[in-house]
Write a structure and sequence with these properties.
The complex is a heterodimer of chains A (760) and B (689).
Chain A: E1 7-10, E2 23-24, E3 30-35, E4 38-43, E5 49-54, E6 60-66, E7 69-77, E8 81-86, E9 91-98, E10 105-109, E11 112-116, E12 123-127, E13 135-138, E14 141-145, E15 155-157, E16 163-168, E17 171-176, E18 181-186, E19 199-204, E20 211-215, E21 219-224, E22 233-238, E23 244-249, E24 255-260, E25 265-269, E26 272-279, E27 286-291, E28 297-302, E29 306-311, E30 316-321, E31 333-334, E32 341-344, E33 349-354, E34 359-365, E35 381-387, E36 393-400, E37 408-417, E38 422-429, E39 437-442, E40 450-455, E41 459-465, E42 478-484, E43 491-496, E44 503-507, E45 510-515, E46 520-526, E47 532-537, E48 545-550, E49 554-559, E50 564-569, E51 573-578, E52 585-591, E53 594-601, E54 604-615, E55 619-626, H1 636-639, E56 644-650, E57 655-660, H2 661-672, H3 684-703, H4 714-724, H5 733-744
Parallel strand pairs in A: 9-13
Antiparallel strand pairs in A: 1-57, 2-3, 3-4, 4-5, 6-7, 7-8, 8-9, 10-11, 11-12, 12-14, 15-16, 16-17, 17-18, 19-20, 20-21, 21-22, 23-24, 24-25, 25-26, 27-28, 28-29, 29-30, 31-32, 32-33, 33-34, 35-36, 36-37, 37-38, 39-40, 40-41, 41-42, 43-44, 44-45, 45-46, 47-48, 48-49, 49-50, 51-52, 52-53, 53-54, ...
Helix pairs in contact in A: 4-5
Chain B: E1 5-9, E2 19-25, E3 30-35, E4 40-44, E5 50-55, E6 63-69, E7 72-77, E8 81-86, E9 91-97, E10 103-108, E11 114-119, E12 124-129, E13 134-139, E14 149-152, E15 158-162, E16 166-171, E17 177-182, E18 197-202, E19 207-212, E20 216-221, E21 226-232, E22 238-243, E23 249-254, E24 258-266, E25 274-283, E26 289-294, E27 298-303, E28 308-312, E29 327-329, E30 337-340, E31 345-349, E32 353-358, E33 361-363, E34 373-376, E35 379-385, E36 392-397, E37 403-408, E38 412-420, E39 423-432, E40 440-443, E41 449-453, E42 459-464, E43 469-475, E44 490-492, E45 501-506, E46 511-515, E47 520-525, E48 532-537, E49 543-548, E50 553-557, E51 562-563, H1 565-573, H2 577-580, E52 588-592, E53 595-602, E54 607-611, H3 626-631, H4 634-640, E55 644-647, E56 653-658, E57 663-668, H5 671-677
Classes of the chains: A mainly beta (760), B mainly beta (689).
Chain lengths: 760, 689
Amino acid sequence: MVETSDIRVVRCGGSKVNLTPPIISSDSRFVLCTSGDLVKVYSTRTEEWLHSLQGHTNQVTGITLNPANHLQVYSCSVDGTVKLWDFIDGILIKVQLVEVHETVEIFLSSGLCVSACPECFQLVSVHLPKSAEQEVEAKEMSAVSSHISKNPSCTAFGRGGEYIAFARHLQLNVYFFRKQKTYSFSLKATDKKGAKNAFTCIACHPTDDCIATGHEDGKIRLWRNFIHKKEYTYSTQHWHHNAVNTLCFTPEGTHLLSGGIESVLVQWQYGADNRKEFLPRLGGSILHISASSDGQLFCTSHSDNKITVIESSFKVCGVIQGLVKDAVLTDLMIDPRSKALVLNGKPGHLQFYSLLRDKHLYNLDIVQQEYIYEAGLDQFEVVKAAFDIKGSWLATVEERGKKSSDLEFFLKLWAFDERTQSFVLNTTITAAHTDRIISMCFSSSEETTMLVTAAEDSQFKAWCQGADADTQQDQNFWSCDFVGSYHKLNPTNCSFSADSSLLAVSFQEVITIWSPDTWEMLTTLCQPPGVIRDLCFGRLSCSKYLLGTTTKNLLCCWNLLTCELEWSTSVDVSKLQPDPFSENVAAFSYQSKHTDLFVFKPSEPRPLFTNKNVCSEKVHRAVFVPREEPLNSCDESTQWLNRSQLYFLTQNMDLLTFSTATEEDRMLSSSKQLVIDDSVAVTPFYLLLGKHRQQQQKLNTQSHPVSDKPQQTQGSVTIKELLHTPAHVLPAASVLCSMFVNSFLISNTGVQQDPLSWLT
Amino acid sequence: MGEFKVHRVRFFDYMPSGIRALAFNRDIERIAVARMDGSVEVFHCSDRFFQEKIIPGREQCGIEGLSWVGERLFSAGLNGGITEYDLTNQKVKYTVDAYGGPIWTIAGNQQGTHLAVGCEDGTVKLFEVNEDKIQFERNLDRQKSRIISLSWHPSGSKIAAGMMDMIQIFNVETGHSVHRLLADRGVGTSRSKECVVWSVVYLSDGTIISGDSVGMVKLWDDQTGTLIKSHNVTKCDVLALSVSQNEDSLVAGTSEGTVVQFQFISMVLGKDDKEWVRTRTFKNHTHDIRAVAEITTAVVSGGMDAQLVVRPLLDKVEVRSAASALRKIHFPHRRLVSCARKSGLMLFQYPGHLELWRLGESEGKGEDDIHLFVKRNPEKLLHLKVKGEDHIRCSAVSPCGEWIVYSTASSLRLYRLHCDNNNVSITKVLQISTELSANQLCFSSDSSHLFSASTQSSVHLVSLSQSGCKFVGTLKPKSGERTIGIRESSKIIPASEDGKWLASANSDHEVHIYNLQTRKAHCTVPVYSSAVTAMGIHPTTNCLFMMYADQQMCEYSIEQKQYTDWSRMVQRKGLHRFWMERDTPCLNVMFNPQHPSHVILHDTYMLCIIDQSLPLPDDKTQFYNQLTLKSLPEEQRKSHSHAFKVCKTFKDILCVELMSDQSLVVVERPLEDVASQLPAPIKQKKFAT
């Protein structure tokens, strides 16, 4: 870490928004959720990402509104700090350093913060000191329980913060702060009817002394009278067929909301337990529910990294979709047209996600079948996908029957339709191979597109468009052009060289080089021992090199001109990722429980950049994402990040990336200027005015061809400042007056402006 | 540990009758159960729910309600009469016609002065309870529809009456209706159907709780006559309600077979504003629950599936023990089968008839758990219908198989059985009317005498011979100080093998031993706190072996008039935990003449042989150790074996008898067979079906 002090692994873009319950601001205008190291603020009405609260240096694990001031929000993070923010302006107000190890979760009530620590998951009540300084250290702490559940939903504050209820496995505990006494109640693990009684979540009624608990078998229990050791009582309701993930009382306590894997939001009427309402088909299983303080809006977060905003009339009014990373089977890919990240999304879909704007673009339905949300069903999944170099063709493989022996799979080819700006199914090949497709790649030449698939039936096939004579004129379908094999060995990888003049197909331990024009095997390369795991050609100036990694921890580089091994090194590479915009190749190696990254050029065996201990899990997927505007760093160790950014996916499905110091500085400076626009909601009125303003801006740019950005007139800046500064910090009106009048004076720019331009 | 050839009898089609009403008497801790066939049973709640008394029913006598007034038990039924029971002699005392058509409900006030009955003609009739009889007092205001349910205010000044579509509150003083509470009908198609208020409960704070056919439990205020709250409990009917004595818990029985508990709980802890909140749901029944009773420590429920379920409320139980476990009572705690040990005949007692069967025969000798080939199938010899309307109270067949005797509430009949070749005929030998009607019947082992347990702990002797029968005399207990007052009637009378001794136990827990040669009372066994469920006199040692309802056992030497050493050792060392935790009483005590030290016992779930020569197990030893013993080598077995050998091969046992040819007869009545003969329950949508 010492050598790479200016390059840091960050969670930036595509992070989980469903890690903690989202919170709705008290005026129901904003939804706040944690996303990696940030807290993101979204608009409830337009679902737009407005801005983010930036400042934590590690995963943010909990947010909660400040009970004393509803315009402020507390956040806590694994970095061990609790921060207080003004979330409307995005200003950090206060930092509290909590000494206990790492704060994992935060629950707040009446100035008292309870945090849990990861090692043993202790519940600690932390007294937040009242001091004016920006950075204070919270020292006053008292342990509530030394052993609580890892799941933060298993802890909840009771009526008015008088007590806290927390459950672990089969035991429910209620701790009364005033009496400093804990009452515990336990359930039997199972009974004759096969109940699974372990607690999964807790919610407390806001006005009554009633604790709702969810259980593994889908039961919901309402506990009452819990200050008695024996005379406590509970009632049981059962609708969910699987574990209840979350429970939430509405602020008035008239209803209880529950959700689970069924992805049905259930609303129970408190007191009349038989009456319930359902909102089905919400997508992934429900992980968290939260309600706004006026009870008008509910928010559910789902396992497919999604937040749904629901009106109290049980109508979905907004969806905030994050990057879905549930079961990534395909590689990480970049759509050459939109530069969006493409991977498995909703079941049976490919998702297109813009990492730059951290926004989900759209889903492409590949399987085109209804997905049934039930455990243990064998359904079609997209397992492979590949784009051609221009982004006009997409090849996908979907398969089902991984567990059973009868494997079914389809190879589909999708053409990009300029008119609809989306991919349209062109060809479906039902029996492309007799066994599972292992690897697939498009040729990289611009003129002819060719797809090569390698499968476990020890064949590889080349597919071309319109080669079949039977096909009709107007539609060009794909058909098989060539079938190749090598000594009945199973192919493991295939790859085209940068100019598509060569095709490398690895058969177990042997790499064969083919000419795609004549389908002639040119040569074989063999470097025993070990099966070839990854294969790639060098780019640009290094295109004469072919890189391969083997299962026996060998990274080899062949020179294709001499057909000889140029160099090889012993390293266990789990993923080899070439950068399409430079000669650089990134290799992730997994050794002794952590992953290291090496970036090197195939021409020289010395790495450009090494980063030890990137993460503690294995990395199997990585991608270089092109930057919108290249950095111009001259430092050797950061140079490789100039044109593109390396994202990688760990086994925990964390999408991580590298950021440089200069980049962070730039982002920080831009965020400081961030002032929330008063047009949070896109109303028709805004559209009308906005259009007008855009026209005006166009006018401006025409009149100022030199400046690339439309310059605001000084007047509108002044007015804006006047209107946006809170009234209590405004200087006296006499001071403002001259400034205001000054702003009406037209500066001498040489071009007469329409005086109305800044009034709008 | 003794090998037996077992006749596994499963052709006794005994059907328990559905439970219609329950009444709990808190003072004497007894619960009375009325069944659909008109029989009334009394269970002792603190003595492990032992079935103390059974009053057999009659044809065409449907009981609709039960009510205790003090220690007196009253019932009312659709035949329009109110019946009081003579619990000491286990029979109907008298029946008074209410002249209001069928009676749907009966309720006594807490003061014990009045009974109210709700009649088909829409009247609530008040009866005054006198010393020995009840007396009609007056009618309350007559209503248009029948009165389904009644509840007195604890002060006795008001009555709530549930009817079709409404509840009326009557002032008892004036007899006028104070309020009329309208119950809503169901929505949708059931709108046209009347809402039947099946059950009402009047609390002392003026809250009226009703359960109706719409499936609602509703809470009403009697001052304003308004609905306070309603709970939708089920889609079907709420048939029964019961409130605990301190009015903090209410149970509702539904026709889905669930019991729903409501509790009176403060919503904010430490504050006094309490509300009725639905809490637990118990599902132990498959069919309609017709009656529930909240008895402070447990919820007792009974219904169409004929089982009495005692569900303990663990928050009210002080110490958790076997006595406070979930209990399901399926079969009567007495024998319905008697066997002629010498001739292989079995007599099955049904409510309205008797069946005599001959056991089948098998060939071959098998190893452990081998089914033998049946050579001759069992054969039904006789179907004897009872004379009159009364149901059979008890019956017996003599060991030689020549005599059959049965008794109803009104008479005792003795028949002689002639069996030549395949021709079976009977002749009536004796018919004795009321005074001699027996609670229990028993033959001497040589079939020369019939013993009939009768009222006041007396036992009548009838000598039997080829020529006929003769009433010989009556055995009465020694008239000591304790004979003051009415004696309970005798129940269990085993006679010794040699015909010298006779022991009788009554429901006062007394056991008397008589010398049959002198026909005098010999002695009395010290009274134990629990009821005797079974006893037997050992054929060689003449010791009386007794089993009690709390699973204790005693052996009493008749000759020495004291407990035997073995019995004292059992008392000193205590019985194994597993033995004490069994929840059904032992129903028979038998002795194996080939192994004098063996005592054979059985309850509903197991068959047990106690070897008195082996050491007793303590709580640390493995109780069910047969399998372990089997795996051990021969020499180690001795050190690991203990006195109790339990066989759980048979289930739902009604009777086990050791025949004189060393074969066992095990009469089983599988609960699945009982369940399959019940009417279909309410159809419910179950998840994933």
